[in-house]
Amino acid sequence: MGKLDVKILRYLTPEDFRVLTAIEMGMKNHELVPALLATQIANLRYGGVHKLLKEMCKHKLLSYERGKRYSIKNIFTTCYNKFLDDGYRLTNAGYDYLALKVLTHRGTIHSFGNQIGVGKESNIYIVANEEETPLCLKLHRLGRTCFRNIKGKRDYHQHRHSVSWLYLSRISATREFAYMKALLDRGFPVPKPIDFNRHCVVMELVEGGPLCNINEVDNVETLYDELMDLIVRLANHGVIHGDFNEFNIMIKDDGKPVIIDFPQMVSTEHENAEAYFERDVNCIRDFFKRRFGYESELYPTFQDISREDSIDTEVKASGFTRQIEKEIDAFLTENGIDYKEEKDNIDNEDSEDSEEEKYENCVDNIEDLKYQLKGLQLQNEIVVKEGFDASTR
Ligand code: ADP
Ligand code: MG
After folding, report:
1. Residue 248 pLDDT > 90, yes or no?
2. CA distance 19 to 8
3. For labeling, which of 125, 170, 173, 188 is most exposed (least CB within 10 Å)?
4. Catalytic residue status for 243
């Protein structure tokens, strides 16, 4: 998505949003939502809905696609020897507008500014509330990866994202919000989480820049110690950041670090916790060596942890709603997703195709993909703010 055309928010009527929401709901178990189904869900007249659907395709909030006749086995689609009906699906922009509408309606967001970042799995914008306080809006964009399926490749390419990215992006945002809140409550230097809806998180805007843009610091040793201390403190609270690198550490104007980017956090109880912990530590050691020529004998190991509490457990226990749990369970079942099985498939991926073709438009990084799958599978880790269900629509 390019620039967020927020003007459109003002022009969309309540009926437009009703139809957009109907497509979103339909996509829970349909690749493509037929107009008739959308009409039923929206509970509006067919003729009217048809016109609105067309209009929203023109604005690229929806896209209309011909159903394919194909036979595939792909974890992110519902199609096993199925005929797909022609129908509509939400685009990124359509999903953005649903969330932004809710966030503006609640008064969380009042105006929009520029895009300030494109992360690996997100787009970042500056927004402002009514008091004109600048805030940071993070739109999570997961599920842009896919599984290669040699036989069905051509056919399923078009459809592979439709269902998965709604879930993955929403799960990612929800986790991020919950972790940020839990971390802030414990005095960690993280941006204050303000609100979220669907795949969007609104948080405090950190004044400063990412560590990767910093070439000089007042006291290298102090910063190094502070960062290592943060890794240990996180672990003492039961979590490992999992992506603790110079891109996810902001340095404020006063030189203090702020940690960002939490959807991938893992528990210290995870079977690979020690490896994740070491990777975070090594990221910092490597960066300091590379950038500042600084090396220290001192760095924490997994054995240095002394557990105080478990953010992970608390976060899971607190905000859980049965609703999203059930919804995702149903999604996994309907889609025949078995993490174990799919993981093996990836590991054994044969290599008839050239490397390029293999990953064409597909997976940036197999680790990411496994992570995303795990995100789906480890549904118990999905965390939801109280009142999430009521606020999503
Ligand atoms: P991703 O998961 O895509 O890596 P990040 O959360 O790391 O997303 O954000 C991407 C970039 O956006 C960061 O490197 C940083 O430059 C900027 N950014 C993210 N959150 C904030 C924030 N709260 N305040 C200021 N800049 C931010
Ligand atoms: Mg990041």
Report:
1. yes
2. 15
3. 188
4. yes
